[in-house]
Write a structure and sequence with these properties.
Layout (H helix, E strand, L loop, with lengths): L2 E5 L23 H12 L3 E6 L4 H12 L4 E6 L21 H6 L9 E5 L2 E2 L2 H13 L6 E8 L10 E9 L2 E13 L5 E4 L5 E4 L4 E9 L3 H16 L9 H10 L4 E7 L4 E2 L6 H13 L8
Parallel strand pairs: 1-2, 1-4, 2-3, 6-12
Antiparallel strand pairs: 4-11, 5-13, 6-11, 7-8, 7-11, 8-9, 9-10
Helix pairs in contact: 1-4
């Protein structure tokens, strides 16, 4: 058994609306619809959506109509005041607490090994098959985790540089994810980027990058209790502080508390950040349909 945990609480401030509900397919399908479709085909038997109460009625009514007869559904709410016992949200806080907190709010709803994805990113069918195979073979409550990594060339944008976490691994186990910025293909076909220290990186098409498609068991929630306890103890009053799941994974593997297997997908990845991304995504989905990856109507 395996659960798909979908991070869908984003408000789409840069996009100008709820990306997770914006139609991209020929019949009004969202990116999320294709991800759920791929997850069901791969064998996942439950999906848990992390959303906000402010748009829960619209989101839940749509999800029930489309998914409820095909897969078990549950909802959790990432609200600013949904915090560990004894922690009070500062009155001036407006920004969400980050992806580690988003996953933590599903603590009571996830009891099987699970995959984590973003609602507004397209990952491709092979990625879900790879994820399900890993989750089906991991000990139910071990600290042996995983990630689905992508070939860099399959994540680039034609409209400018992108930031990606370049994966370093040893014998299939994650060692480090290094953030490289402004990655783009040059006129001669090479791919370049820089890091925070302005060090230039010459990257290959096959370079593996993390797109935050992580694979966990429920043991993660015990680790999140510790991680978030420290985060809120030290950074609660910082106006824009966020707790990111890659930072949790990095802490766990470097302390020897957990391992993270690097699984490889050759699928194309794409997502929407800005309104200009929408026609690109629509065209990519149309191509998938033409290639027989999806039926015209899901």
């Amino acid at each position: 058994m395996a659960t798909l945990l979908v991070l869908a609480a984003g408000m789409g401030s840069r996009y100008g609306g709820l990306k997770q509900l914006d139609p991209m397919g020929p019949n009004g399908e969202t990116i999320l619809d294709y991800s759920v479709y791929d997850a069901i085909r791969a064998g996942f038997d439950k999906v848990v959506f992390i959303i906000r109460k402010s748009f829960s009625e619209e989101f839940e009514s749509r999800a029930e109509k489309l998914y409820s007869e095909k897969i078990a559904i549950s909802y959790c709410y990432q609200e600013l005041d949904n915090l560990p016992e004894g922690i009070q949200c500062p009155e001036e806080r407006e920004k969400p607490w980050g992806t580690a907190h988003a996953i933590w709010v599903a603590k009571q709803s996830v009891t099987d090994p699970f995959a984590v994805i973003n609602a507004d990113d397209y990952y491709g069918p092979q990625a879900f098959l790879t994820a399900y195979e890993f989750l089906s073979n991991v000990a139910p409550n071990s600290s042996e985790y995983g990630m689905v990594a992508y070939q860099l060339a399959n994540t680039l944008s034609e409209h400018g540089g992108v930031n990606r976490g370049v994966v370093k691994h040893d014998d299939g186990l994650l060692q480090d994810v290094h953030e490289v910025l402004k990655i783009q293909r040059q006129a001669d076909g090479s791919i370049d980027g820089v890091d925070d220290d302005q060090v230039t990186y010459n990257l290959e098409d096959e370079t593996l990058v993390s797109m935050n498609f992580f694979l966990f068991t429920p043991s993660l929630f015990d680790h999140l209790d510790v991680f978030l306890g420290e985060f809120f103890r030290t950074r609660l009053t910082e106006e824009k502080s966020e707790s990111y799941i890659p930072a949790v994974v990095d802490t766990l593997i470097k302390s020897g508390t957990a391992t993270c297997a690097v699984k490889h997908s050759t699928d194309q990845w794409f997502g929407v950040t800005y309104p200009e991304d929408k026609p690109v995504v629509q065209a990519a989905i149309a191509q998938c349909i033409e290639n027989g990856v999806y039926p015209k109507e899901l």
